[in-house]
Amino acid sequence: MQDGKVFEKAGVNVSVVFGYLTEEAAKQMRSRGKVLKGKDGKLPFCAMGVSSVIHPKNPHIPTVHFNYRYFEIEEEDGSKQWWFGGGTDLTPVYIDKEDAFLFHNTLKEACDKHHPKYYADFKKWCDRYFYVRHRRETRGIGGIFFDDLDSPNQEEVFNFVKSCARTVVPCYLPIVKKHLNDSFTPEEKDWQQVRRGR
Fewer C-beta within 10 Å: the chain N or C terminus? Predict the structure, then answer.
């Protein structure tokens, strides 16, 4: 979507891909502790996910980003390794403490339904992941982020991922509605574009 009344640019991408893992990708996964045994050096995989970035027109409405994904590899004996990853984060141009509380609290409630440490652990991971070192600044106010989540079992992890994905609307739409009619100056709009470009 582009040039709407509320959203300047917004996109949702759904991906389903499969094939053979490249040696470079396998090496990177092994560096994260994955033990991968391919058949004749080949590792069949499938991956799927949904991701979105929403850029609002009004600089008082933050940008939101989320992605949730599933990855599966078939090993030489036919067994499968799987894991989930993803997260949701918010990038305001102008920080509103009430908005930040709503956003983080909604994510925390979703995480707490599944594990008491998920929110704290995944918030820290998100803060590290979206820290721009060469600028010494964060991309936004964070959120949650995780990868390689493969326990306690596939069904429970999938339920957790679904809970997180279902928080996107309740943690973002109230913020959009709250600031929808906020006035803004050309300077504030320019600053939004500068921040967005970073």
Answer: C
